[in-house]
Specification:
By secondary structure, this protein is of the alpha+beta class. The chain has a single domain, classed as Glutaredoxin, CATH 3.40.30. The protein is built from 4 helices and 12 strands. An 8-stranded mixed sheet has the order 3-12-11-6-7-8-4-5, sandwiched between helices. α1 (75-88) runs parallel beside α4 (181-192). The longest helix is centred in the middle third of the chain and has 14 residues, at 75-88. The radius of gyration is 15 Å and the shape is globular. The two termini are 18 Å apart.
Length: 199
C-alpha cells in the first residue's frame, strides 16, 4: 500500500494512533478520505470456521477492514464492538457490509478463541475473524502498514487501522481506532444512499 495511505504510530495496544497524512476530513463523512487511486491489496485467509475469505470475494459489499486479537483487553474489544454495533444498526441493509478482522496474534487467536470472543461480544454474522500462520499474516500486515510487536502471550502491541472499502474493493475512508459506532453508522448510511466522500 502506498506510503500516502497511512502513517501509523505504534505504542501499546490501547495507545496506538493512526493518521492519514496530508488529508482533511471529508465533508459530511466522519472518516478521513483515502487518496484516490490508493489500492487495497488483496489477500486470502481462513476465518474461524475454516472458510477462505478474500477481499476480492467481498466485491459487491462495503468492507470494514481492521486488525485485532481476541486476548486484547483495551482497544480491540472497543473497535470490534463499535463496528459490530454500526452494522447491526443498519438493519436489513447490514447484509451489504462485511467486517473483516485480521488477527495480529497467530498463536493465540485459535478458532476456539475467536468463537468464544464472538459469542461473548455477540458479533453479527457479517463479522469474520481472519486467521493464519505468522508467515501467512506478515505480508498482510506489511501491505497495510500494521506494526505488530509481541510483548507476551497476553499482550501484543500493534497498530489498529480501520479502512472502509467500497463495493469495488477500493479504500474510501480511514478511521482512527477510537472512532465511535455512530460515526461509522452514519457514514455507511450515506454510502448506502449513494453518496460519496469528496476526494
Amino acid at each position: 500500500m502506498p506510503a500516502a495511505l497511512a502513517t501509523l504510530v505504534a505504542a501499546g495496544c490501547g495507545g496506538v494512533e493512526a493518521r492519514l497524512a496530508g488529508h482533511g476530513e471529508a465533508a459530511r463523512f466522519s472518516g478521513t478520505t483515502v487518496p484516490r487511486g490508493s489500492p487495497a491489496i488483496d489477500f486470502a485467509l481462513r476465518d474461524q470456521d475454516g472458510k477462505i475469505v478474500s477481499l476480492a470475494g467481498e466485491r459487491g459489499r462495503f468492507v470494514l477492514l481492521t486488525f485485532l486479537y481476541t486476548h486484547c483487553t483495551d482497544i480491540c474489544p472497543l473497535i470490534a464492538g463499535n463496528l459490530n454495533t454500526a452494522v447491526e444498526n443498519l438493519g436489513h441493509q447490514g447484509g451489504q457490509v462485511a467486517i473483516l478482522a485480521v488477527t495480529v496474534d497467530p498463536e493465540g487467536d485459535t478458532p476456539a478463541a475467536v468463537r468464544t470472543f464472538t459469542l461473548r461480544h455477540r458479533l453479527v454474522p457479517q463479522f469474520r475473524w481472519l486467521l493464519g500462520t505468522r508467515r501467512q499474516l506478515e505480508p498482510v500486515w506489511r501491505d497495510y502498514n500494521v506494526l505488530v510487536i509481541g510483548r507476551s502471550a497476553e499482550r501484543i502491541e500493534h497498530s489498529a487501522p480501520i479502512l472502509l472499502l467500497d463495493r469495488r474493493g477500493r479504500p474510501l475512508l480511514f478511521y482512527r481506532n477510537t472512532v465511535g459506532a455512530r460515526a461509522v453508522l452514519d457514514d455507511l448510511r450515506r454510502l448506502l444512499r449513494g453518496e460519496r466522500p469528496s476526494s
